[in-house]
């Protein structure tokens, strides 16, 4: 699993691309000049890493990733601070999660520190593509694919780790409406939807149609013994991302509580989810908030909304940071989720977004921000 980062070979492009003006950026459409690739075989382990010009792959039509979806990926952002320094955000967490996703997909493991080293070298080389305007960043997409040329279903005997990147604009902070989906599940216990891999993403598109979707999961509530619908995650088509969901409410006893569903097997271990939980425990708990990782149902949300106890609801993802949710459509009814008329984001979401961005852009000196 060892990757020798110091043996990196760099072949620079002879045709550098023009920089897309910030105002014209479309998510995922302006790739940088280069990509990072590392090949693996079961007989020889990891080969020397290479940075090459961004280019097409040549794959046999029977390749494992094309047939059976042997794939794991990550999404991370890289920032330029006011002094022009490049900053990664908790990259070791992305690599740790990618190794877990790879293990679930029978893909090889890698040493996380070496890949963080390689990522630093890669983004340094692509420095001119990292926008310096506040809110903008470079989106980095590490992938691993199974490259075995075999139609038999088995662990890949060869794989490719590769990293591509493109500049992105800030996501809009408009509050969005979600439709709760009853007829399709995103995941079920013991499945692989808690991992980051492509077979998680395509199946969320059709149930959503043209809408922003809230996935539910029906199960037996252990105390009452009746079937309830647990809130799972949201899939958003116009923001190109899936999100973990938080809701801030007042309990019947008047306690302020920030709740999100626990990870385990049906919730993706979102990195923004982790950041919001850690910041909430450090900074909101002392202000009297209770921070909970517990299962919660749409019935509970509807009841709290009916009793005017929902303070705000938001989604989290690396791509969008915090996405405020204003309402949820559920079996014909409309659950109102908080922000007052003419307010797009509630105070908790706003504060979280501010805290996270000030760490990402290095305004606040914090161990999560890793200088290159
Ligand atoms: C990536 C992803 C998220 C968000 O995770 P972050 O690490 O916060 O970006 C949520 N759900 C799914 C299914 C995902 O793939």
Tell me the name of the CATH homologous superfamily of the largest domain.
D-amino Acid Aminotransferase, subunit A, domain 2
Query: Over the alpha carbons, how many angstroms does the gyration radius reach?
Result: 21 Å
Number of strands: 19
Shape: globular
Number of domains: 2
Topology:
Layout: E1 9-10, E2 34-41, E3 45-46, E4 50-53, H1 64-68, E5 71-73, E6 76-80, E7 86-89, H2 91-104, H3 112-125, E8 137-146, E9 158-168, E10 176-181, H4 202-208, E11 213-220, E12 227-236, E13 241-250, E14 256-260, H5 271-284, E15 290-293, H6 298-306, E16 310-317, E17 321-330, E18 333-336, H7 347-360, E19 369-371
Parallel strand pairs: 1-4, 10-11, 10-17, 14-15
Antiparallel strand pairs: 2-3, 2-4, 2-9, 5-8, 6-7, 6-8, 7-19, 8-9, 11-12, 12-13, 13-14, 13-16, 16-17, 17-18
Helix pairs in contact: 2-3
The structure holds pyridoxal-5'-phosphate.
The site of pyridoxal-5'-phosphate has 15 residues, from β13, α5 and β16.
């Amino acid at each position: 699993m060892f990757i020798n980062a110091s043996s990196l070979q760099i072949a620079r492009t002879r045709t550098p691309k023009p920089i897309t003006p910030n105002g014209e950026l479309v998510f995922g459409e302006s790739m940088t000049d280069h990509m990072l690739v590392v090949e693996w075989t079961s007989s020889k382990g990891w080969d020397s890493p290479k940075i090459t010009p961004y280019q097409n792959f040549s794959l046999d039509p029977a390749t494992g990733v094309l047939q059976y979806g042997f794939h794991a990926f990550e999404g991370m952002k890289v920032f330029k601070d006011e002094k022009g320094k490049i900053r990664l955000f908790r990259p070791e967490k992305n690599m740790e999660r990618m190794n877990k996703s790879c293990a679930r997909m029978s893909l090889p493991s890698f040493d996380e520190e070496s890949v963080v080293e390689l990522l630093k070298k890669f983004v340094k080389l692509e420095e001119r593509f990292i926008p310096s305007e506040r809110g903008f960043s470079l989106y980095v997409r590490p992938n691993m694919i199974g490259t075995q040329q075999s139609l038999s279903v088995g662990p890949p005997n060869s794989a490719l780790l590769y990293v591509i990147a493109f500049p992105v604009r800030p996501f809009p902070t408009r509050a969005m409406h979600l439709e709760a989906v009853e007829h399709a599940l995103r995941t079920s216990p013991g499945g692989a939807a808690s991992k980051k891999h492509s077979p998680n993403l395509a199946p969320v598109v059709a149930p959503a149609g043209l809408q922003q979707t809230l996935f539910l999961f029906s199960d037996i509530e252990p105390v009452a013994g009746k079937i309830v619908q647990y809130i799972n995650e949201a899939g958003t088509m116009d923001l190109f991302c899936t999100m973990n969901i938080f809701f801030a409410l007042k309990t019947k006893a008047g306690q302020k509580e920030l709740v999100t569903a626990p990870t385990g097997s049906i919730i993706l271990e979102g990195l923004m989810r982790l950041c919001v939980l850690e910041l909430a425990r450090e900074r909101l708990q002392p202000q009297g908030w209770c921070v909970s990782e517990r299962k919660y149902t749409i019935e509970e949300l509807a009841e709290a909304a009916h009793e005017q106890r929902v303070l705000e609801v938001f989604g989290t993802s690396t791509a969008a940071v915090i996405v405020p949710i204003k309402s949820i459509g559920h079996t014909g009814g409309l659950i109102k989720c908080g922000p007052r008329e003419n307010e797009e984001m509630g105070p908790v979401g706003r504060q979280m977004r501010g805290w996270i961005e000030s760490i990402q852009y290095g305004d606040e000196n914090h161990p999560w921000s890793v200088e290159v």
